[in-house]
């Protein structure tokens, strides 16, 4: 029995010794790991950025009333602004507005947000902290729609420096009004502006200014528009007065747009010019071809009406005349006058033929006079024209009271002096001179093109 007791005691002591060694080894290993981690942490991290508690506790957000501006009751707080234009998305002539995407950044100092830092590094936060501190209440004057981008999260950045300086940046798309003058459209240039202003704080509480003057506005070199050439961006600032609230600082982003003319040359000016030139073709068509000349005139008039309607459909209903309206309506008048010209030619020809028909009925036969031939002349011919026919003598056979209506001239051929004409005329043949081309058509072939070319010279010299 004593032998078994000694053996049990020996085994128990061995077990205690093994467990004691294992415990010491684990404790020694854990101390080495703690020392190593502490050394790495001190080497790579700033103690001010250790998240021992909430961020709000580090910035002491709960210790201050951020519903009031910094230095409330004191001088106006200066808030610097700079803008980087990412894109100019669209320009609408019908709605008279533009859409722009930009990065809007504010700079100010709020000592309530200062914190201790050994390395003097800033802290960067997203939009969740913005709702708990004071930020400037800047809005866009004359804006129709605007929003902060929220994909994949709200595009808001807040950077706080140890001395209390704050950088607040947002990515915004805004649609704002632009007062456009279309009196020279489409040979025009438009100047639009995006205006920024504090909504609640007057100039006595908040001083809004461009942080670096004209250098505060940056633009992307790839910005372009299909119909416009962006000439320049620049910044201005001034005070705006409201009778009920007072004076406010207002910042302006101004940009000038020059319209490309080539699109309108192809779609408006060239078709209108071609229609006017096409209407002149009727001056070379026989006035007796009524269907051809009437259909040509109606086609050109309707085409000009379609061009005018299409241009006005894409424009606002302004109460003044645009440059394109002058060109299109003058072209329309030229086309319409070509139709009226044929109406005048057709009417005068009908009157002339009616008078000749009456005259033939009154003098049915002139062939009884030997060695003579008869030529009927209407009012377009004078007596000097009849006398200019060499080798002929004139004898008057029409009574005096009928002389004003129609002149009938008998021309007696002299056999001695006009032997060559006898061979051409081959005997006593009655001839009648009938004009197939009216004198109005002859004059129109010169007057219409000349006047239209003169109009184009004046138009392009004034508006280009």
From TrEMBL:
The organism's place on the tree of life at top rank: Eukaryota
Membrane-topology descriptor: Multi-pass membrane protein
Subcellular locations according to the entry: Postsynaptic cell membrane
Alphabetical list of CDD domains matching this protein: LGIC_ECD_GABAAR_rho, LGIC_TM_GABAAR_rho
Catalytic activity: chloride(in) = chloride(out)
PROSITE patterns linked to this entry: NEUROTR_ION_CHANNEL (PS00236)
TM region positions: 261-282, 294-314, 326-348, 446-463
A GO molecular-function descriptor: GABA-A receptor activity
Domain Neurotransmitter-gated ion-channel transmembrane: 268-460
GO CC aspect terms: chloride channel complex; postsynaptic membrane
UniProt KW keywords: Cell membrane, Chloride, Chloride channel, Disulfide bond, Glycoprotein, Ion channel, Ion transport, Membrane, Postsynaptic cell membrane, Receptor, Signal, Synapse, Transmembrane, Transmembrane helix, Transport
UniProt family annotation: Belongs to the ligand-gated ion channel (TC 1.A.9) family.
NCBIfam families (alphabetical): LIC
Protein name according to UniProt: GABA(C) receptor
Organism from which the protein derives: Struthio camelus australis
Upper taxonomic lineage: Eukaryota, Metazoa, Chordata, Craniata, Vertebrata
């Amino acid at each position: 029995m004593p032998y078994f007791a000694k053996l049990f005691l020996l085994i128990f002591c061995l077990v205690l010794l093994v467990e004691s060694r294992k415990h010491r080894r684990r404790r020694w290993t854990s101390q080495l790991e703690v020392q190593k981690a502490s050394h790495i942490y001190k080497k790579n991290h700033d103690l001010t950025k250790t998240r021992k508690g909430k961020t709000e506790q580090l910035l002491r957000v709960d210790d201050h009333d951020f519903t009031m501006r910094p230095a409330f009751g004191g001088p106006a707080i200066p808030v610097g602004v700079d803008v980087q234009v990412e894109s100019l998305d669209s320009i609408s002539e019908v709605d008279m507005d533009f859409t722009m995407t930009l990065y809007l950044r504010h700079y100010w100092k709020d000592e309530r947000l200062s914190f201790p830092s050994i390395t003097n590094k800033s802290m960067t936060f997203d939009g969740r902290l913005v709702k708990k501190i004071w930020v400037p209440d800047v809005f866009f004057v004359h804006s129709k729609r605007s929003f902060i981008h929220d994909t994949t999260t709200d595009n808001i950045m807040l950077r706080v420096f140890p001395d209390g300086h704050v950088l607040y940046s947002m990515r915004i798309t805004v649609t704002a009004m632009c007062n456009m003058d279309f009196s020279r459209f489409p040979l025009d240039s438009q100047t639009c502006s995006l205006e920024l202003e504090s909504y609640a704080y007057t100039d006595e509480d908040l001083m809004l200014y461009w942080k670096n003057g004209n250098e505060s506005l940056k633009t992307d070199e790839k910005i372009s528009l299909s119909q416009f050439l962006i000439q320049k961006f620049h910044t201005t600032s001034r005070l705006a007065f409201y009778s009920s609230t007072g004076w406010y600082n207002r910042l302006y982003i101004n940009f000038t747009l020059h319209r490309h003319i080539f699109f309108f040359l192809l779609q408006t000016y060239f078709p209108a010019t071609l229609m006017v030139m096409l209407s002149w073709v009727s001056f070379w068509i026989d006035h007796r071809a009524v269907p051809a000349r009437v259909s040509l005139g109606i086609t050109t008039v309707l085409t000009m009406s379609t061009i005018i309607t299409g241009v006005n459909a894409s424009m606002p209903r302004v109460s003044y005349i645009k440059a394109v309206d002058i060109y299109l309506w003058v072209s329309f008048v030229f086309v319409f006058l070509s139709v009226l010209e044929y109406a005048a030619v057709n009417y005068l020809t009908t009157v002339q033929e009616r008078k000749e028909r009456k005259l033939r009925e009154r003098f049915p036969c002139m062939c009884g006079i030997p060695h003579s031939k008869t030529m009927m002349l209407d009012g377009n011919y004078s007596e000097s024209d009849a006398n200019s026919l060499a080798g002929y003598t004139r004898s008057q056979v029409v009574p005096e009271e009928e002389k004003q209506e129609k002149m009938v001239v008998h021309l007696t051929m002299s056999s001695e002096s006009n032997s060559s004409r006898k061979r051409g005329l081959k005997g006593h043949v009655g001839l009648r001179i009938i004009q197939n081309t009216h004198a109005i058509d002859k004059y129109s072939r010169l007057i219409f093109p000349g006047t239209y070319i003169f109009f184009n010279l004046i138009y392009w010299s004034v508006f280009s």
